[in-house]
Specification:
The complex is a heterodimer of chains A (410) and B (89).
Chain A (H helix, E strand, L loop, with lengths): L6 E10 L5 H9 L6 E2 L12 E2 L13 H4 L4 H17 L11 E6 L5 H12 L14 H5 L3 H10 L5 E4 L5 H15 L4 E8 L4 H10 L22 E9 H6 L6 E10 L9 H14 L7 E5 L6 H15 L7 E3 L2 H4 L6 H15 L1 E2 L22 E2 L4 E8 L3 E9 L2
Parallel strand pairs in A: 4-5, 4-6, 9-10, 9-13
Antiparallel strand pairs in A: 1-7, 1-8, 2-3, 6-7, 8-14, 11-12, 13-14
Helix pairs in contact in A: 3-6, 10-11
Chain B lengths: L1 H14 L13 H4 L3 H15 L15 H23 L1
Classes of the chains: A alpha/beta (410), B mainly alpha (89).
């Protein structure tokens, strides 16, 4: 079982602030309906930054019974909800033998932060409670970074290569890229892959605030007047399988993953690098057998920080030369926030739907041009466009870059 | 006032690993080549020392010299005292 196979995406699932499934999420993005608002999870009196993009209208008890819920941190809940949607759409039954040849690879930056925060609050006696050294027995299995991947295997009977990938804001793209390579090279016949993050907690909000990269107003990627990023949360999962398998069973192919590229800047722990980002894009194109001119759309990392957006713009120009001016480059983080370790997966949904429906989602909240960001960012209104290939960029703190190259389904 | 200035100079010298004796009110910030992570530490230390909140990307502060920084911190302290007084009345 070796060789080179084309890789199809036949299932997608998503839960994030703009919508709790792919249809509602994509519907919001197409209409530039952002989901950034006053943060609900944390009392405002101790916050300087009081906005986030939180998953709303969400009752875990509607998705999981009590016994299961005990085991699931919020990030694992998001993973399973997205995975159920994706597997249902793909229509695959892993328990009938395919599970042994299937990989489950899930990215997350931080894992069970909600669980960790509750544990520390008990330990140190926060929130007006007395300190207690007694911990909730399931603290460890809930908070471990690999918990979501484990729950995916248990939910669907997947017994092939399964693990978590953690590379901060590139976690999901690294997970999906690795799963893609496994299916392409025959190391796995299919894969359930994506990412999840749920760290809109008091502690995490304060820590991000202290780093001074958070916008107090909203997220305006590539726009003049942008003030930084906005935290989001959510999860997204894709089902990957051999293109010929999907064809043979008559499954709908949503898009094709063509290539994957990754680099490390070996530079700064927070400052992005133009060459590291550009090299990752070049590698993704080369890996996918694509010429720069084949690409019509880039779902940018586009965090909305002063540094990222200028550096990413330069990196795109470095990779695409004159063709950069013809690209549509958008950051959907303007609507779903920065979902950190889930970002590559949530944005994969946006990029796949853009290819499939022929509509490029906009960069919302765009106010005015920044001379240092001079590409076509599709400001504020979605654009009908038939795109043959797209890139989805993730560039993490610590200089870990991961780029996926996608092709429209034939 | 002088005490605040001294404390701010101490903080900047310590966090950015600079020669304290070389810092004056007229020193230009760009000449110090302070790295972004050191800047974050400086702001954090200023907030701790003076119990103020330094806003992000606030365009009403024109920070070119260390004097501008001292003036800015004094403004934040003044605003905080006015707020506290308003809260008590």
């Amino acid at each position: 079982m070796t060789g080179t196979h084309r890789v199809a995406i036949t299932g997608l699932g998503c839960i994030a602030a703009p919508g709790n499934d792919v249809a509602s999420f994509w519907g919001a993005l197409k209409e530039a309906r952002g989901a950034i608002g006053p943060v609900a999870a944390v009392p405002h009196d101790k916050l300087n930054i009081k906005i986030a993009a939180e998953v709303g209208d969400f009752d875990p008890a509607r998705h999981f019974d009590e016994r299961k819920l005990m085991l699931l941190d919020r990030f694992a809940q998001f993973t399973l909800i997205a995975a159920r949607q994706a597997v249902k759409q793909a229509g695959l039954d892993f328990k009938a033998g395919l599970g042994r040849e299937t990989a489950a690879i899930i990215g997350t930056g931080a894992g069970g932060m909600n669980t960790l925060e509750v544990a520390y609050a008990r330990l140190h006696g926060a929130n007006g409670n007395g300190a207690t050294a007694r911990q909730i027995p399931l603290t460890i299995p809930r908070l471990m970074v690999s918990a979501a991947a484990s729950h995916v295997t248990m939910e669907f009977g997947i017994t092939g290569p399964s693990f978590a990938v953690s590379s901060a804001c590139s976690s999901a793209n690294h997970a999906i890229g690795e799963a893609f390579w496994m299916v392409r090279t025959g190391r796995a016949r299919a894969a359930v892959t994506g990412g999840a993050e749920a760290c809109i907690t008091f502690g995490t909000m304060k820590a991000w605030e202290a780093l001074r990269v958070m916008a107090p107003d909203t997220c305006r990627p590539f726009s003049g007047g942008r003030k930084g990023m906005v935290l989001g949360e959510g999860g997204a999962v894709a089902v990957l399988e051999r293109f010929e398998d999907a064809k043979a069973r008559g499954a709908e192919i949503l898009a094709e993953i063509a290539g994957f590229g990754m680099t490390a800047d070996a530079g700064d722990i927070v400052q992005p690098s133009e060459t590291g980002a550009s090299d990752a894009m070049n590698l993704a194109l080369k890996d996918g057998g694509l010429n720069p001119e084949d690409v019509g759309y880039i779902n940018a990392h586009g965090t909305g920080t002063l540094a990222n957006d200028v550096t990413e713009t330069r990196a795109i120009k470095r990779s695409f030369g004159a063709h950069a001016a013809k690209l549509m480059v958008t950051s959907t983080k303007s609507m779903h926030g920065h979902t950190l370790g889930a970002a590559g997966a949530v944005e994969l949904v946006a990029a796949v739907m853009a290819l499939k429906e022929g509509v490029v989602p906009p960069t919302a909240n765009y106010q005015r041009p920044d001379p240092a960001c001079d590409l076509d960012y599709v400001p504020n209104t979605a654009r009908p466009a038939r795109v043959g290939a797209a890139l989805s960029n993730s560039f993490a703190f610590g200089g870990l870059n991961a780029v996926l190259a996608l092709k429209r389904a034939p | 006032m002088a005490e605040i200035t001294e404390k701010i100079m101490d903080i900047i010298a310590k966090e950015a690993k600079l020669d304290r004796t070389a810092l004056t009110l007229d020193t230009r910030l760009d000449s110090l080549k302070i790295e972004s992570l050191d800047l974050v530490q400086i702001l954090f230390a200023i907030e701790d020392e003076f119990e103020v909140y330094v806003p992000y990307n606030d365009e009403s502060y024109k920070l070119e010299t260390l004097r501008d920084v001292v003036d800015g911190v004094n403004r934040l302290i003044g605003e905080k005292q006015a707020e506290t007084a308003a809260g008590q009345s």
